[in-house]
User: What shape does this take?
Amino acid sequence: MDGERISGTWTHVWRRAQWDDTYFVDDLFVYADGAVGCMELTDLAGLERMLESGRIVVTDPAAPPFREPENRWGCRYPEPLTPESFLLEIADTVEELAGRPTAAERCRAAVDTFRKAPTEANRELLREAYLAIPAHRRVYFLGDMDHQDRPVKILLTAIGERVDGDGPVATDELHQWALEYFARGDEGVEREREQLAVLHADDPTTAGPPTVVLHETHFPNGRPADPGLSALRNDFPAPVRYAGDTYPSVLHGYWALSAAEETDRIAVRDASTPGEAHDLGGRAPRRDDWPDVRLAVMAGLLRAKFTQHSEPAEILLGTGDARIRYTGYSESPYWRDARDDSGRNWTGRLLELVRAELLAERVSWPTAE
Assistant: This one.
């Protein structure tokens, strides 16, 4: 929208048909700026009006009505989805898309506040934060399939009263158990954080450089004196000595070595341009083992190019540790990065590998005495 990307997500709803009173499943889209779209683009207030009018419903109209559990404390499934709780869920989704704390995260913060100072005022703040979570999402908001949200319910219940109305009577011991439950959780999180710090000890501490994109470029007036990133492309004119022969470019070498017949291999090798080599090689019958060896051949050709030519090697090393995207339209999606995520970007990945190998050759390694 206006050049800015607005993140969004979607969920299913039942929409009433315009021609009768039947309902069908439709998509409801939710965006980080608060826009909501189903039949039209609106906002949370507009969605509320749709729910009130019945133009949208949140459960299958043909489904049987929800049956209240006989024992709320022992119930292991969520509360029913209602228009009110659905509206809260959508509002919460907007907060999450916008990078703001969700109701569940705010409730966890309220739990921490109450643990530090278990006053009645903080208990009331915790109750408000808990009730702000969409009702159908409360039962598992702690991420605990066994205890569910019971530890919070216990903390919200005054001494002498039954938790959930039909659960155990709240006691000092039960409150202490709930507090210890969260303390154990914090200890587990801290242990996990310490373990990850060890396992991920070599993880970069700062953001890496932006992705380097190697665009397919044509030079109708000849290549410039400074090739720039175009020197990393496979059609760059850098003679490559590989597998007992010399090829004018990596592209020449790749398609020549793919040919099953010697006459085709020579014709591709001697082609006047990389484009002609590609065309001849693509038309020639290929070796039977080509699908198995082509990746290794490309890796060998790229290693040869950057070890035999210092200028392209310095340009490659100058990309640092950035991800390399090899784009275009002339080469197979196997080698390039396609927009629809169908490309495997093997050329870009191999360039990153060769770059690491070049750097490794320049590193001084400790030697055992």
Q: What stands out?
A: The radius of gyration is 32 Å. The chain has twelve helices and nine strands. Residues 8-97 form one domain.
